[in-house]
Amino acid sequence: MKPRTASARAWRIARPAAVGALALVLAGLIGGCGAADAPTKDDPNAELLVWTDATRQAGFEQFKKSHPDVKMKVETYDSAALLTKIQLFNRTGKGWPDVIFDATPNEVAALSSKLFDYAQPLNDLIPQDVQANFGSANAGCHVDGKLYCLKNDLAQSVLWYDKTLMDQFGYKVPSTWTEYAKLGQQVAKDHPGYIIGTAGFKFVYYDYFWSSGCPLQTVTAPQTVKIDTKDVKCTRVTDLLDPLISAGVVSRGGPFDPEVTKLGKDKKILMMPGASWYGDFVFKPEASYALPNGRLAAAAYPKWDGEDKAWSGATGGGIYLVSKHSANKKGAAAIAQWMATDTDLQASAPTYPAYGPAADAWGAKHGTDPFYATNPLPALKAQAALINPAEANTSYGVEDAITGTVVAKVRGGGKLADGLPDLQSQLQQLAQSVGYAVN
C-alpha cells in the first residue's frame, strides 16, 4: 500500500465533527433502536460487502484477488456518515456492510452498543493464537469482556527528538517528565526560539492527558465512567505544561499550524512528544517540517515521578469490525483477520501494525530508513505495549470538548489549567446525554 498522504490522513486532523457529533447522533436516534436479528445459519457462499477508506482499499482488493472463491464487493464510504448509515440500515432491516474499516477507533463503543446493534463479537471467530499475537493492542476493542474489533495499526506516543541539536547543545534525552520540564526551562534560557512540544491542538489529550491516565474516558463498569479533571493525573499535566508554555518552549499552536511548521523547517524543534506516525508524516514530508536525513530519533516516553511504566497515549489507529447481521460471519471475520495480520501486507503499511509479527516485519523494512539518526523501532515497539489502559473507548468523544476548553484557553493566551473546570462540565454532560452514569 502507498504511504498515507496528508489528505488521506485528514481524519486525524479534521475528524472531530464525526466523533464529537456522536453524542448528538446517539441522543437523537434512541427511538430508532436497531433491528434484532433471529439467529441464522452461516452461509459460506453469501456475498460479502466491505466498506473501507481509500488507503485500505488496495489491501482488500489484494485479498479478493488472492481468494477468488470468496464473493465480495469492496466500496469506499463517507466515514463521517457511518453511524447515521448504520441506524438507517437498522430501520430498514437491510444494507449493512459485512466488514468495516473504521479510522475512528472510539466508534467501537457505539457500534457494539444496543443502540446501534452492529458489531459482532469476534472471540469465537478469531483463533486464540491470533488474538494472543496482538498482545495488548486490541485492548480498546474489548467492551464488557467481548472482542468487537481487530486493531489495524497503532499510534502510540513516543518522544521524538532532533539528535543533531541535542548533541550540539549537549543535552541528554529526558527519561522523566521532571527531567523534560527542567530541560525545557534550560532551553528557554540558553536557546530561546526552540520548542520541545505543542499544546494548542486536540492531540494534547492523547500525548499528555491520556498518557498520564487523566480520567476523562475511564470506564469503571458497564455504562459507568469516571470523569474527574481535579484528579492529580490531570492536574500534573497542566502543572507540567503551563510553565513551559509561559516560557515559550511549548508552543501555544498545534503541530500542523504554520508557525510550528516554520519552526520545523528552520530546525528549531528540539523535541516533540507525538504519535508513532509523526516521523514519516510530520517530520519527513517536504510539505511539513522537511527535516533532513539523519537528524530525527525516537526515545521511550518519559515517566511520571513515582511510576515505573512510561505510559503512552494513542493518536489514531484504525479498526476492523464485522457485522452481527452478516449471513457469512466466518467469511467476514476471515477478511478482517487477513487485513489486520497478513505479514506481507502490513510490512508495507504506512503506519505501525497492531499485530505483533506484522509489526516485526514492518520494523525490518523501516528500521534502516536513512531519514532517522538511529533506528526508531525499539522505542516504537516498547511504547506499543504501553498504551495507557486507564482510558477506554466510549460512546462520547473528547476531542471537541478538549478543543473548546483547555486548547481554547492556551491558544487565547491563557493556561491549560483554566480550562479544566469547563472540560469537566462539558464531558460530564456529554457522557450523561448518551446514557452513562458519571462518578
TrEMBL record:
Keywords per UniProt: Signal, Sugar transport, Transport
Main subcellular location: other
Location in the cell: Cell envelope
UniProt xrefs under Pfam families: SBP_bac_1
Keyword Transport: yes
Superkingdom of source: Bacteria
Gene3D superfamilies from the UniProt entry: Periplasmic binding protein-like II
Example of a GO cellular component annotation carried by this entry: cell envelope
Keyword Cytoplasm: no
Similarity remark: Belongs to the bacterial solute-binding protein 1 family.
Protein name: Multiple sugar transport system substrate-binding protein
